[in-house]
Amino acid sequence: xxxxxxxxxxxxxxxxxxxxxxxxxxxxxxxxxxxxxxxxxxxxxxxxxxxxxxxxxxxxxxxxxxxxxxxxxxxxxxxxxxxxxxxxxxxxxxxxxxxxxxxxxxxxxxxxxxxxxxxxxxxxxxxxxxxxxxxxxxxxxxxxxxxxxxxxxxxxxxxxxxxxxxxxxxxxxxxxxxxxxxxxxxxxxxxxxxxxxxxxxxxxxxxxxxxxxxxxxxxxxxxxxxxxxxxxxxxxxxxxxxxxxxxxxxxxxxxxxxxxxxxxxxxxxxxxxxxxxxxxxxxxxxxxxxxxxxxxxxxxxxxxxxxxxxxxxxxxxxxxxxxxxxxxxxxxxxxxxxxxxxxxxxxxxxxxxxxxxxxxxxxxxxxxxxxxxxxxxxxxxxxxxxxxxxxxxxxxxxxxxxxxxxxxxxxxxxxxxxxxxxxxxxxxxxxxxxxxxxxxxxxxxxxxxxxxxxxxxxxxxxxxxxxxxxxxxxxxxxxxxxxxxxxxxxxxxxxxxxxxxxxxxxxxxxxxxxxxxxxxxxxxxxxxxxxxxxxxxxxxxxxxxxxxxxxxxxxxxxxxxxxxxxxxxxxxxxxxxxxxxxxxxxxxxxxxxxxxxxxxxxxxxxxxxxxxxxxxxxxx
Length: 620
Fold this sequence. Notes:
The protein is of the alpha+beta class. 49% of the residues lie in helices and 13% in strands. It has helices spanning 2-7, 10-17, 20-36, 38-43, 51-68, 100-103, 106-129, 135-147, 149-152, 158-175, 180-192, 196-209, 214-237, 240-243, 247-250, 283-295, 300-317, 322-329, 343-361, 367-382, 447-457, 462-467, 573-608, and strands at residues 45-47, 75-76, 83-84, 388-390, 407-410, 470-475, 482-485, 493-496, 502-504, 507-510, 514-521, 525-532, 537-541, 544-546, 548-551, 554-559, 562-570. Strand 15 and strand 16 (554-559) form a beta hairpin. The longest helix is centred in the C-terminal third of the chain and has 36 residues, at 573-608.
């Protein structure tokens, strides 16, 4: 039984699959991936398309800066009047590949992070496709998958790319019967990479393939990722995802059936959705996939691939298919926004069929030529997605004082089009210079705060805007962004008496897990901090524990007259419990590795030594 368990060790199975030709495939994939990203790597530039510029680059920058200075980024005080930061899985605080941003110059780390995940997708695809196709066919399909439109379109939403890159490896673990601990680690890594939906899809697929080990793997993967999973679940509970998102936002970027023709069309047919800007997977790939489907239609793997493609088409249809729209809008928790997000999953199934089609239609000596054609065909369409420029950590055109002493808020932007994203401080651009933004670009936000923000801005109500400490108002008359000072905004920390008198705090300082306030209170009153109230915040006054309470959506506490030093610390219980669970799970894995290694050493000596009795207590 021990030998059977040892044979299911991840690295043992991986070595058994890495025959010389497979090792060569891994090297080819790595070299081609690095060549594709060579321009930004050599120039030390960063990709700039869409969400690279104003979302993921500032997000990675801010997180890395905190970690580099020895601070665990639990809280972001600069967006949405404060928001849980580590609880947002896109920050990938505990995802090992994301630690590149701490160790390397930012531009190099950012591009290398993308290249490594394209490479990982190729490696996993080779192993997966090789389960039902020859090594040459698996390599050809894997290379084309790496650079096809649906995969490369995830570059600028790189949490999706990072998680999607793990799915082929997760499926291979299921089919190769890799030990539960290692399979669970692969699933956990897919979640820690930042995209819960893709991670859940991979985990569900694993459970359907390996029903015998499903519970064990599920519990172990939860254990590995608990340090980020538990804070995320706590955040979701009180977020807009739990109360529902308007259908026009939820179903945006739906993909009608006619758009699927773009998968095989070398000519751009135009797209209804824009989540996946390039859907092209290659004309040759589609033809080979059809051959694989027709030639092996009786095989279970082929039927599963066909079912996955059909299911993805129905889900991606979103607003264009009433049953899908009804299902997505009536789920108790929003698990999928932008239905076109599932297109890469369909692409994975198409390339699996193409690998089978290559074996059926292409002679072995021509497979490398077919691989080159498939790879170059898609690269020509997707390389523009790698457009790059020098990294600029200060892109906002306003003086750094704007947004530093009061929050900024946007008014009337729903009527404006084609705005300069730098001028309106889009996404997370506020994080570079640590400007305070009343709104957030995060994929989820507090439901209560969202309601308060909408009440202040739709239509604009200056009394509520003032109460939120919004001292800078961005507007866009005639499509040109302007910023103006709002002198009536309340300070971000203010003492309020029963009779309505107000007094500002003497000083205020923030970190990513604490806040410090000094106040000379001329009267007894309520000290209000216009930072969100969230579970996990504790407060002391002059070193003594105090009781905090909610004032609207903000944090508050009672303060007596006199000088006081107040310290807020963010210590969410979900993180503490999650950290303990993850540490115990890692300890279990470590002990398992030690046990397997010691068993192998013992078996080696039993087979090759005459001193058998020394290693077998039953013979002593």
